[in-house]
Design brief:
By secondary structure, the protein is mainly beta. The chain has two domains: 105 residues, Immunoglobulin-like (Sandwich); 94 residues, Immunoglobulins (Immunoglobulin-like, Sandwich). A hairpin with a 2-residue loop joins strand 13 and strand 14. It starts with a helix and ends with a strand.
Amino acid sequence: MNYKLSILLMILIFLTGCNNCQTGISTIKVGKTGNEVNAFIGQDLQFKTNIYFPEGIKLLKVTFEPIKKTDWSYVKDYTTDVKQHNQYHLSGVIPIPVYLAVGIYKLCIKAVSEVGEIAEEETEINLKVDSSMPFASKIDVGLNAKKDNLHLESEITASKKIKSVKVQLKWGSASKTYTYNTDAMIGALQYTFHEHLDLKDFKNGKYDVIFIVEDQEGRLFETKGDFIK
């Protein structure tokens, strides 16, 4: 193909590529299928959409909160990501905390163009408990007065029966994992996890605690906590 003709075609594609783009925000697609209306406590909520302003995108923000107002809400600012873009494919994941109440929540996406045009798109999500997945209550983390012994407790349920529990401590770039699979735990539908970790040899600092339950079908549930030694 003639070189000049190739350049001309590339320019033409660039200029006409968004002729069919919807100005503002397209319909929000939720979940793996794109049209899900349910989300589940302790699991990730996936969503995606497209944003287009011919003049460029100045601001992009996502919020997720219950219809009945509480002190919890999720807010993420994508403004840095969309700078110098007039079209942006937004694909996000919202981690749903284990302590949220079931009910109706609102997922809202707001965008502002470089010339001040405002677009908002929202959809309602029914937050439920997935009874087929393993579940653990928010991990109770407690450090004794000497700061050398860590108390961990959580209530576990698993309709497909418990296989094991892993507790991971993370501090800085280091980590240590503890695996629990006692006879009383393996195969149980319900189990009260109550263990203590010896922290005598651990340095002072902030620690993250990742608590992971695995059921007999290999499905995982994760909850988190933290403490300062």
